[in-house]
């Protein structure tokens, strides 16, 4: 029997939202507090996607090395500064709200699957008026392992009560596509996010160039 699409899972940073300017500002405030030079936006963009601890570690590595023996204290300071300011300039990509409305009208269950920490995730979703669209939000604190580990995707499927063949993952990075593939979930990649290299090389089932192309891509995957 042919599977019917029941759920769509979304990455957050670079997929639903353009959050890079706020991340760049927070990273450079952290570096400035340690007397380090600021990093360029493109350099920080290449560090995004593997969780906040990886971002902090990479930023210090690119500016002379971690000041202390462990990343923990610097991660805590970074998050304390970033979380309340995480939506100062962050905005949904064009077409996101309208597309989420359309998918909701179609009766699909919607979820967020992000390597961003929980508090910052809920802060951004609430500030941008996006929280109401999602049945489940699973951040880095909420899964036994983060993307590209398939456990992150599987936690969401279990909470939604949806089988892997009835779900699609939408993302902008190799972590999104790998986690979906390893969980047996189809995927759609965005060409305008924060991918570290050619989006076409990620191996997604479909690639879209505008967010409002997503409904057609989903209909193509589930005719």
Automatic annotation (TrEMBL):
GO cellular component terms, semicolon-separated: cytosol
Keyword vocabulary terms for this entry: Carbohydrate metabolism, Hydrolase, Magnesium, Metal-binding
Active site: 11
Pathway: Organic acid metabolism; glycolate biosynthesis; glycolate from 2-phosphoglycolate: step 1/1
Reaction catalyzed: 2-phosphoglycolate + H2O = glycolate + phosphate
GO aspect biological process, one term: DNA repair
Coiled-coil boundaries: none
Keyword Protein biosynthesis: no
Cofactor names: Mg(2+)
Binding site for Mg(2+): 11, 13, 172
Pfam families from the UniProt entry: HAD_2
E.C. number: 3.1.3.18
GO molecular function: metal ion binding; phosphoglycolate phosphatase activity
Classification via InterPro entries: HAD-like_hydrolase_sf (IPR050155), HAD-like_sf (IPR036412), HAD-SF_hydro_IA (IPR006439), HAD_2 (IPR041492), HAD_sf (IPR023214), PGP-like_dom2 (IPR023198), PGPase_prok (IPR037512)
Family: Belongs to the HAD-like hydrolase superfamily. CbbY/CbbZ/Gph/YieH family.
Task performed by this protein: Specifically catalyzes the dephosphorylation of 2-phosphoglycolate. Is involved in the dissimilation of the intracellular 2-phosphoglycolate formed during the DNA repair of 3'-phosphoglycolate ends, a major class of DNA lesions induced by oxidative stress.
Protein name in UniProt: Phosphoglycolate phosphatase
Organism (species): Paramagnetospirillum kuznetsovii
Gene symbol of the encoding locus: gph
